[in-house]
Structure formats: structure tokens, C-alpha cells
């Protein structure tokens, strides 16, 4: 087998030679004699190293493509700023670029990483008070939305989409309005990440289709 993107040697070696004998390193870091390793385990090891051998250089190539794409986009925006002698405000994101024929599109977006401060617990206390006083047989659907909004997942994270849904409810109770303000005040933007997405279509009337690079979506 020749060296290349799919060469198992591109991945860390899983066995070594000691005093003329081959030993395999197991998951605990122990050395297992070659004769003690099952043939099926050797074949599985070869399979994994072959596939990962292809994946590693592809992953590096995608990372370079991503950075080069952002560099190209930012360079074009700088060109526009020079053209209009003005700088664009806001984050470097939420932009759309299209080819002249309208069949190719680049979308750059910024996703903010939001965490919730202690005001959220204050909001939950006020909402719980409202739920206790509202009659048990009314606002059933609203109760379900509220309970889901404050639930956390296995990592202890709040689903912010469910939480945002509370802000859209039209409830005039002054305590509810105070709770919604507490939710808004709890938002903390602790960082952001830029995403670039590519699209194409067959003609100007056809729907856009994503150009997938993610292995799981390709």
C-alpha cells in the first residue's frame, strides 16, 4: 500500500516492535502480544486507520478552505468600504453574496453564544407564583410552554428558543411582565462564532440547495 490520504500510516501507530516481537497497544495502554490479538480485531484496526487516514487530511483541507473563504469575504468587504469610503458597522457576519447569474450564493452568519444570569432564577420564581394563583383548569397550554421553557437538558443547559417563546406570550399580569423583563436582563452574550454556508440552484426560479461539506450531511 502506498502512502497517501488513505494510508493507515497517516494515523498514530497502534503497535510496536520490542526485541523482535510485535505488540499491540490496547485501550488501557497495555501491550498485548501479536499472537494474542484476534484476527477480527486486527482487521477492525486496519479499517479504522484507513478511514481516519482519509479523514485527517480532508479535515485539515476543510479548515484551510474555511479560513481562506473568510479571508476572501473580508477582503471583498474591505474593497466595498474603500469604494464607499465608509466602514461597515457591526460584526463581520450576516452577509449574503451572489454570483452575477444568481445561481450561486455565499451566506456568512454570526451565531452568538448566550448564557443566562441570575435574573433567570428570579424570573422563574415570579412565573411560579403566577402559575400557583392562576386557576388549575385555565391556561393549560401556556402552563406546558412555561414548564418546558425552564427545563434543562442533561448538560444543565436551557433551551433558549423555548425561553424566547415566553417573551411572545401576550399576558397582561404585571408580575408576568416583570418576569419577562428579568428574562431579558438575564441574557449574557459571552462570545460569537462565524459560519459560512454555500448554495446553488439550477435556475433563477429553482430553490436553493446547500453545498454540503459536513460528512454527516453530505
Structural topology:
Elements: E1 15-18, E2 21-25, E3 31-33, H1 39-84, E4 95-98, E5 104-116, H2 119-133, H3 140-149, H4 160-167, H5 174-186, E6 187-200, E7 209-210
Antiparallel strand pairs: 1-2, 2-3, 4-5, 5-6, 6-7
How would you characterize the overall build of this protein?
By secondary structure, the chain is an alpha+beta fold. Among the domains are: 1-89, no CATH class; 120-181, no CATH class. The chain is 42% helix and 21% strand. It has five helices and seven strands, in the order βββαββααααββ. The chain has helices at 39-84, 119-133, 140-149, 160-167, 174-186, and strands spanning 15-18, 21-25, 31-33, 95-98, 104-116, 187-200, 209-210. The protein has a four-stranded antiparallel β-sheet. It has a three-stranded antiparallel β-sheet with strand order 1-2-3, with no helix packed on it. The radius of gyration is 27 Å and the shape is flat. The model is unreliable at 1-5 (pLDDT under 50).
Could you name the key traits of this structure?
7 strands, 42% helix, 5 helices, 218 residues, disordered N terminus, three-stranded antiparallel sheet, four-stranded antiparallel sheet, single chain, alpha+beta, flat
Summarize the structure.
The chain has 218 residues and is α+β, with helices and mostly antiparallel strands. It has helices at residues 39-84, 119-133, 140-149, 160-167, 174-186, and strands at residues 15-18, 21-25, 31-33, 95-98, 104-116, 187-200, 209-210.
Question: What is the element string, with H for helices and E for strands?
Answer: EEEHEEHHHHEE
What portion of residues belong to β-strands? 15-25%
Helix tally?
A: 5
In whole angstroms, the N-to-C terminal distance is 28 Å
Mean pLDDT: 83
Largest sheet: 4 strands, antiparallel
| Helical residues, percent | 40-55%
Adjacency order of strands in the biggest sheet = 4-5-6-7
How many E-type strands?
7
How much is the radius of gyration in Å? 27 Å
Low-confidence segments: 1-5
- What is the overall shape? flat
Alpha-beta content class? alpha+beta
Oligomer: single chain
Amino acid at each position: 500500500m502506498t502512502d497517501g490520504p488513505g494510508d493507515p500510516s497517516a494515523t498514530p501507530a497502534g503497535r510496536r516492535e520490542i526485541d523482535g516481537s510485535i505488540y499491540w497497544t490496547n485501550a488501557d495502554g497495555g501491550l498485548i502480544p501479536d499472537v494474542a490479538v484476534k484476527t477480527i480485531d486486527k482487521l477492525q484496526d486496519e479499517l479504522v486507520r484507513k478511514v481516519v487516514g482519509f479523514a485527517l487530511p480532508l479535515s485539515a483541507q476543510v479548515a484551510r478552505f474555511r479560513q481562506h473563504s473568510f479571508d476572501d469575504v473580508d477582503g471583498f468587504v474591505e474593497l466595498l468600504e474603500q469604494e464607499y469610503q465608509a466602514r461597515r458597522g457591526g460584526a463581520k457576519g450576516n452577509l449574503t453574496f451572489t454570483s452575477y447569474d444568481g445561481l450561486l450564493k455565499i451566506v456568512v452568519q454570526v451565531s452568538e453564544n448566550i448564557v443566562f444570569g441570575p435574573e433567570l432564577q428570579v424570573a422563574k420564581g415570579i412565573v411560579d407564583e403566577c402559575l400557583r394563583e392562576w386557576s388549575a383548569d385555565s391556561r393549560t397550554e401556556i402552563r406546558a410552554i412555561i414548564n418546558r421553557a425552564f427545563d434543562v437538558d442533561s448538560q444543565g443547559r436551557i433551551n433558549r428558543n423555548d425561553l424566547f417563546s415566553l417573551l411572545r406570550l401576550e399576558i397582561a399580569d404585571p408580575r408576568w411582565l416583570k418576569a419577562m423583563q428579568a428574562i431579558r436582563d438575564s441574557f449574557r452574550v459571552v462570545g460569537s462564532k462565524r459560519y459560512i454556508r454555500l448554495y446553488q440552484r439550477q435556475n433563477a426560479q429553482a430553490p436553493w440547495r446547500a453545498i454540503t461539506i459536513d460528512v454527516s450531511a453530505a
